Each structure stands twice: as C-alpha cells, then as structure tokens.
Amino acid sequence: MTNLLTYQVYEGVAVVSIDSPPVNALGIDVRQSIVEGFEQASTNADVHAIILACSGRTFFAGADIREFGTPAKPPILPEVIALIESSPKLTIAALHGTPLGGGLETALACHYRIAIAGTRMGLPEVKLGLLPGAGGTQKLPRLVGVPAALEIITSGRQIKASEALELGIIDRVCAGDDLLAEAINYARELVDQNAPRTLVLERNEKTAEHQGQTEIYDTFRAKNARRFRGFKSVENIIKAVQLAADLPYVQGLKRERELFTELQQSRDSLAQRHVFFAERESSKVPDIPKTTPVRPLQTVGIIGAGTMGGGIAMNFLNAGIPVTLLEQKQEALDQGIDVIRNNYQRSVKAGRMTKEVLEARLGLINPSLNYADLSSVDLIIEAVFETMEIKKAVFSSIDAVAKQGCILASNTSYLDLNEIASATSRPQDVIGLHFFSPANVMNLLEVVRGEHSDSDVINSGMRLAKTIGKTPVLSRVGWGFIANRVMKVRSFQTDNLILQGINPEIIDKVIYDYGFAMGPVAMKDLVGLDVLGRESKERTVESVLVEMERLGQKKNGGYYDYDQNRQKTLSAIAMEVIRNIAQEKGIEPVAADEEEILARLLYPIINEGAKVLDEGIALRSSDIDIACIKGYNWPVYKGGPMFWANSIGLKKVLEKLREFEQRFGSAFTPSPYLVRLVKDGKEF
Ligand code: 3HC
Ligand code: NAI
C-alpha cells in the first residue's frame, strides 16, 4: 500500500481515502493509490459499497497541472475512471473542499455523490485553455442537460453544493459536518434499498431532447461571442458537449480526448497554465516568509473620494470592512458616496445584489471631513491628486493622527514613495497600494515596497490583496512601478506610429486582433484626451484636439467620432490635425505592415520589462506578466509580455529591437539584460 492511501472497511462499506497535500491533485501517485484501493475493495466479497474520499483540504482538485507536457504515466486518469466504473460494487464519492476538473470527473464515475455543505465543484479546465478531458464534457450534459452544461463548462465557475444538488450533479448534501460518517450511512441506506447502480455514462434522458440539434450551439456562440473571442478552448468545449448529445458515450469520449489533446498541446494552454502558476507565485516574497506577522485589518481609512478612492472603498465594503472616507469638502464627499451608491445600484438593477446588501455596504461607510476620525483605523490609503506637495501634506496630517502600528499607504501611480514616506515620522509603516482603474473591478494590486517598509507591513499588504480578492504583485519604488511603466511605452509608440502616417484604425485593429479588448487609440478616447495630456506642455495631436474641445468619447469625439450607439468612425478633423502636427515636426511617413506595427507596439514593452527586472523593480518576469494581465487585460492566452517574448524567441525580439533602433532611434535600444540573456541562450 502506498502511503497516500488509507483503506478501511466499516461493516461492508470500504472507504478508499487519499491524502496528497496540498490539494489532492491527481498525479501519478494519487492515481495509483486509487487503483490500489479500488482493487482491494472490488475483490473483497464482504464489501458491498465503496466510498471514494480524500483527507486534507479538498477532494481531488483536478489533474496535476505540473504533469502536463510530460510523458503520461499509466494509469492515466481515463483508465482510473474506467476502473471505478467497472467496479462490481456500489460506489459513492464523498466530496468536500473543491472537487474540480479531473476531481469532479472522478466523482462522476461513481454511482452516487454526497457532499458536505460548503463544497464548491466545477470543471474549470477552460481557465487553463483546456476542456475536461476525462469524460466531463460527456457526463455533465447527461446529468444537467445541454444548456446548463454549456454554461458551466465554458465559464469554469464553481458550483455550491446546494446548487449542485438542485442540478442533479450530486445526490445528497450532508446534514452535519461529519462527511465520512454520513457517507457511510448513505452507503448502507443505498445497499439496503438495493438502489439502482446506474452510471452517469448510461444515462441520456437529459441529452435526448437536443440530439441532432445545431441551433442551440450557434445561439450560444453568438450570445457569448464577445466573451469567448480568442479562446480556442471554448470552441472545442462546445463541440464536445454537442457530441455528448449526438453520439453514444464511447464515441463521444474518444472525440473528447482528441479535442483535449489538441488543446493540451496548444501554445494558448501553455500560456494559461503559466499564468495559473505565475498568479500563485506573485504573492510570494523570497525574503519575507509566510510566517512573518500580519497587522490587523478591521477598519480602513481612505483619503480622497474621487475616481480611485471610491473604487478602492468598494473593495473593502464588499469584504465587510468598515471604511472611513475622508474628503476636503462636503460636496466632494457627497459626490464620492453617490458614485459608490450608483455603482451598487447598477448591480441591484442587474439582479446581482439585493437592496438589503446595498444598504448594508453603504452602512459601512463613515463619511468624514476630519483627520481625527482616522485615529483608530488599522490602514489608511491616500488617493488624492497626483501631486507630490499635496501627498506630502496629506501624509504629514496622517502622521499626526494615525495610531501606532497603522499602515500608511499611497495609491500614487508615478510618484516617489520614499519621498512621500519622508513626510512622516514612520517610513517603516509606509507602503504603496497601487490599484488599477476601475479599482472595484481590476484585479491587480501592486504592493510597493519603500526603502524603509517593514517586512510585516509588506506581508500585510500582500495578504490584504487576497482579502479583497486581488492578485498582489510586489514592486520596488520606481517611476510608474511595473504595469504603468511597461505599458506606457505602447502609448508612446502609438503616438509615433500615428505621426508617421499609420492609420489609427489599423493600429487599433492590430492590438484588438492580438487579443486586447480595445486598441490604444480607442482607449485614449475612452480615458479622455484631456486627462492623458495633463502634464504635457508640448504641442501634440492630443493637445490640439483638446483645444478644439474634442475630449474623446465623453465630449465631441477625439480621434474618432461617435454616434448615439457609441459606434465609431475615424474623424476627418483628427486626421487633419495629425497631418499638421507631423508636418510641423518634420516627421516623414513610414510604411509598415500589421506584423511590424504589432512588433513596434509590443516589443518595446518586453524591452521595458527587461529593464524593470534588471533594476530589481519586479521580482520575477512572471510578475510582469501578471501585472499586465490583471492590470491592463493583456490577453491571458498569450501569457503576458514576458512569456510571449519567450515563445517568440528572445533572439528574434532582440534582432527586431536592433533594427527598429537603427530606423527609429533610442526608444528601441535593447536592455543590456535582454542582450545578456540572448548571449547566454537564456529566457526570461
Ligand atoms: N495541479 C497541481 N498543483 C495544483 C493544482 C493542480 N490541479 N491545484 C492547485 N495546485 C497547487 C498550487 O499551485 C499551489 O501550489 P504552491 O503552494 O506551490 O503555490 C497549491 O496547490 C495550493 O493552491 P492555491 O494556492 O491555489 O490554494 P487555494 O486554496 O487558494 O485554491 C484550488 C485551491 C481552488 C484547488 C486552486 O488551487 C485551483 O483552482 N486549482 C486548480 C484547479 C483546476 O484547474 N483543476 C483542473 C485541472 S485540469 C484537469 O483536471 C484536466 C482533466 O479534465 C483531465
Ligand atoms: P480624482 O481627481 O478623481 O480624485 C482625487 C480626490 O482627492 C478628489 O475627490 C479630491 O477632492 C480629493 N482630495 C484632493 N486633495 C485632498 C486632500 N488634501 N484631502 C482629502 N481629499 C483630497 O483622482 P483619481 O483619479 O482618483 O486619482 C487619485 C490618485 O490615484 C492619484 O494619485 C492617481 O495617480 C492615482 N491613481 C489613479 C488612477 C486612475 O486611473 N485614475 C489609477 C491608479 C492610481
């Protein structure tokens, strides 16, 4: 017996229990242990029922993702599942934690499923660029019907035990919290009743009504076209679910495997698997062990109820943490709270929130015009105007009232955090908490480590990100930190391309086709040309457009004109402004195809990322990937700029940068770090 398996028989009921921390992923040892347990139980004449369970945090949380890309060692998961299904005994899966992916597929091999309340199950393979490849696409539709299966598998969402019971994925929810005892009782009940031993694969009453249909899939595709754009796995999932309705199980299963293998070998899935691990890695700080203390976080103060302050406040309200929101004037305070209320009201209208929850969240706000009200909070986040003098004055006021041990944070986008900290008597308590707009939506939180920040303050910053559902990325102090700094170069190159006569629509198309939701020119119009050019004294296309009151989508259009439905057409006025400014600056037109436009826009980001690493601003290249994915919606199936660079080949990237440097100047000068990597034959 391997040490992962505990095998016990309780008066005719065998319990095959696996323990493989942290999440009982179905790696080779786990698979072998299941086989071993089932072989013992199936051949024991005294055993009438077998319970498959796990100890530790969770029932199997899926296939072992670390094994993907390595040669498969038998027994592979489909073989284990077939073995469970061939058992002559009555089989029951006892679920707790997060039975996901291959874990849920293993449970679906049993005749019955019981789960403890609080269990959250699902088929999240889509998030890894995959589909459920061990029968999930063939079995779930047989249990819940085609429409529900399409929704569940393409979203990859986690389903609570109560919903799973309603849908028919499980058969019973435990009344108490002793899963094993209840599973054993359930097994005895079923044996006593001589309950039917129907396998999910034998059922087709739920799929029969959609057999031979195509419309349901086309409608589903069309309805979700925007959300699914670029994700190859979704198309394979839809095909596989259709096969569940159209083909006998065995044939469907064979095709499912082919569709799975195709995805598993794809670059997109490799990228998404990279992102899965990168996201977990980003919360780890090598010199700050997990055992480092965390400061309490019961109450928060936020200074500035503008665009960011309001959004930041919502994160804490959503987590049930009271917020003291401080402004200079009553009017600004009222306005800030109105925006928060309106945001919540939109959720209520959309049916995502009840009125009671809305009132409860708003009830957690303590509006204030007085710094003394911040004297008891555990964390203060400053989100006032981006001006050093103002920020220093605010930090000095905070210093005068904040209690000892309070964490003092700035949401500054570009300013020197160390200088801000110097306005206090306690720079060890100061960090940056850099949120991304809209702060209640975007999942990135850059935690900025000041020169004097204490380890427990940093650790608390990393932890609080999790409390409010964000992914933390640690950054050292430097202009723009990580995400803004690397993405800013795209904006700079966009301006250059436009002045060189490249059609803005083509620029937007190239970036949209790459997988971003929007191109950089359309993005400028959305943010507002007045906001973008605020600090610039130079005469630019944008400053002229602003002079003409063309502020972007919000007023008179910008680069584009917008109709009532926000449909855009390139503006003839803007094109003329572009031509005039190019002429004034003596910029010659340049021809570039789409491939070159893409390289000119995105390779400098890779180069800037290399500089960020070289300077020690970011801890690791995968943190830059996460920052761009979570902060700027970089398409997840490209893995972020640094992963993408590795997949192109750094040598090729370097050669292109050198060519562009020759043609267009020092903005493309390769980072010495990138040069070193190529010389040493290494990757990011
Ligand atoms: N394979 C390998 N390692 C895994 C894993 C998996 N399926 N799931 C989690 N881990 C690892 C994590 O990398 C992490 O490792 P670390 O401590 O070294 O960083 C550790 O387990 C703990 O994970 P989390 O930090 O994410 O712990 P949480 O408690 O926050 O979340 C979880 C637990 C909900 C299970 C989450 O880890 C998760 O969503 N895991 C992935 C689940 C999944 O996608 N399953 C499907 C896999 S594909 C599949 O099954 C194919 C099949 O259809 C054939
Ligand atoms: P904003 O102009 O919308 O809000 C700033 C608010 O601070 C205003 O309501 C103002 O009344 C208030 N304020 C100014 N001085 C104050 C003081 N002394 N005491 C109390 N309140 C004061 O600005 P926004 O966009 O919210 O930016 C705030 C900070 O967040 C800036 O540092 C900015 O760089 C940063 N940031 C902005 C992002 C964005 O996309 N807008 C993204 C990430 C960070």
Strand order across the largest sheet: 11-10-9-12-13-14-15-16
Q: Mind summarizing the main beta sheet? A: 8 strands, mixed
The average pLDDT score comes to 97
Strand percentage, roughly?
5-15%
Given as residue ranges, the uncertain stretches (5+ residues, pLDDT < 50) are none
* CATH architecture assignment name of the largest domain: 3-Layer(aba) Sandwich
What is Rg?
28 Å
Structural class based on helices, strands and sheet pairing: alpha/beta
Structural domains: how many = 5
Oligomerization category of the chains in this entry: single chain
Specify the helix fraction band.
40-55%
| CATH level 1 class label of the largest domain | Alpha Beta
How many beta-strand elements?
18
CATH fold-level assignment of the largest domain: Rossmann fold
List the ions, cofactors and other small molecules found in this model: 3-hydroxybutanoyl-coenzyme A, 1,4-dihydronicotinamide adenine dinucleotide
The CATH H-level homologous superfamily of the largest domain: NAD(P)-binding Rossmann-like Domain
Count of alpha and pi helical runs: 29
